[in-house]
Fold this protein.
Amino acid sequence: MATQTRSLQTSEAYQQMSRVADALLTPEIEEFKAEGGRVVGFFCSTVPEELFTAAGMLPFRMRGTGSTSTELADSCFTPINCTFPRHCFNQALSGEFEFLDALIVINSCDHVRRIYDNWIDQLDEPEFVHIMSLPRKTGERQVQWYREDIALLKEKLEAQFDLEISNDAIRDAIRLHNEVRRLQRELYELRKVDRPPITGAEALRVMVAGTALPRADYKEMLEEVLTDVRGLEVGDDYRARVLVVGSELDSPEFMEVIEGQGALVVTDATCFGTRLMWECVDEDEPDPIRALAQYYVADRPSCPRMHGDQPRRLDFIRELVDEFKVDGVIGERMNFCDMWQVEHFMTGGDLKGEGIPFIQLDREYILSGRGQLQTRVQAFVETLKGTD
Amino acid sequence: MTATIDLAAKKLSIERYMQERDWFLVLAEAAKAMPGAEGELNVKMFDILLDAKQAVVDCVNNDEPFIGGYFCNAPELFHAMDLPWFMVMETPFMASSAPHLADDIEGSVAMGLGTDLCTAVRLPAYYINSGMMPVPSAVLGLLSPCDAAPMLSQIMQHDKVWKDVPLYCCDPPYTGDDRAVQYFAEELHLMVAFLEEHTGRTLDVEKLKVVCEESNQTYALWQDYNELRRNVPCPHGWEIGGAQAFAISQCFVAGDPRCTAWFEQLYDCGEAKVKAGQGANLADGWEEKIRLFWFDIMPYGWIYEFMPWLEEEWGAVIVMDMFSNFPYTLLDTTSEDTIFQGLAKRNLLDAPMIRQARGTAENFSNDIRRVVKDYKIDCVIWPGHMGHKDGAATTGIMRQTCREIGVPFLHIGLDLFDSRYTSVDEVKDKVSEFFAGMGLG
């Protein structure tokens, strides 16, 4: 197939996704709600969003997009708290999440889990606010624990909203979400070539949009995007291929700063990236709730909160480095995150020991310190092999 | 797999540990200068502490089994299994006033762990990484109450020597209902099986019952003693009885008659002072003016620079702190099952810091309400330790709770183990401004 100069900006599906990724309340959500649909906000990629789709709800992954300040939230949090929950909660206190019909928090980290406590302390809406208990280990007992926790959430949702979430509906939802994952992975596969059709920032917009749209609609859009990107190539001004590993990264602008310094982000290991879709939920498991528990506790690429899994996480990065012909790894970390501080200490050391360049970039949730970031990335790119 | 280290490495592994022991010897000598029953209590506490440390040193030197663990791993089980143990975070918790600490904190920064990771985690990480921690036969990790503590377990697994030390971590549910307690009790059973496998020691349930009954006596005395602290003036302050009670009952000899005997003496000492109407400080003209709830670990890194000042300058007495707090119920020793249920509840829901920080935030509020009421507290200080990020995110809730019950609340922002984060003078200034502004003292 003949390649074309870049024209992704003319893809209607991509433009729609970009718009969704850059906002919280979108026309798509308004339309969904106008038709009687309910929206469930949830924090962290370990919440089984399939359950909400099975309930006919729209799973909306919480983020602080558009926030410029934390001044309202700072009466609840302190300066040693991560700015992600501070911005999100500020948005909540500002009324930006009034479109939610339910909120699910999980004990993902010290900062995010306290959103639950502050939310129920400060806000009356939505009426249904629930916190899940995700284990720290990844064994069979923990899968069973989380299975019970998901079942408990299902019961509470059914009671709260007077609905039934059948096993068949959960199976259907698992199939739909898996299909989305396969398509997203297909998009990532296209990034393995020397001149991929899509940048890291664009790919992130596509991924973020996938957490804020009814998944069936998103699947159709994603298929269009896949059609639109085939045959495209990024420009030839990239001097290195990098992988970004880290946490809750929903900022395409952060990726743009990296890519603006000549480092093309060809893949990632983040909570809005491969961690969402590199594996699929087992569709053949007779108990679909157990299948969800197995996936979210044990099977998906884990994050550092899961104890004892660092060797598997390292293997995953090695695999991505190899498959995507990565020249260097960027470890992003939001300030005051203990888990990623230690994880990058371990994994960064391991990668460097194997001759894979690694740099840790600490950041705030909203892009700040752009000049410093540019300088550090620029210096890192200069050190990568293959760069002149 | 068991870690094997050569003689030089073995010597290095206990060098710091022995330096800490020697530091405690210095403190023990100083304690002897304290007059009366309180001096005796201090001396006995140091004796117990030093014996526990020596037992670990002996195990290292004689290649006998010992373990690393935490107070919230149900230490009654270790005692029943005759397993000497040390707390992996022992240095920050107990010895962070030692002279070498500043250098070690610098070492942890140089290691690459940054400066915003909890010092209580960075220090043991540094000791592990630099071969300066006793290498146990097996180690128990901690997967709560914060994000940093579990990462220490992952650092162990990642270390070139410690990766061969068998590691087990009880998985703590976030909830605190019956399902959670039952689940955690099963985790404790698995922990015992792990310890049996890797140390060669076995758990005799009859012995465990004896240990737990002894532990109950200890805890009953602790509860009675805490009742004495309700009195105005409070018979003891920061130095005697409070955090010591936690250390004695949960860190050194849980379920041991020596522990019970110490509490009996503590109770008698407190009771005598209450009857005599004596307060925490017996200096001429001293008067208790402010009854304080210090809602965290004591500032062990600079405790001697700060706590005496509180009492002497302001007449402010630490009537209660997070670790002196007593939310416990006694263990039902009817059967193995009831014992494990009780240990699960104690170690999942009640142990200090775990109780407040592991799960949802209601225990921050509940404890403030109960302690303020029961102990006639004049003000609450949440020190705001740099590692306690979940607590930092609960500051608004604590402030609101205090506002509702009409008691002043102060959040400082400091490092309990490293006074360079916020200097002692700065802490004193903030506290003084707070007291003065609130009309206290």
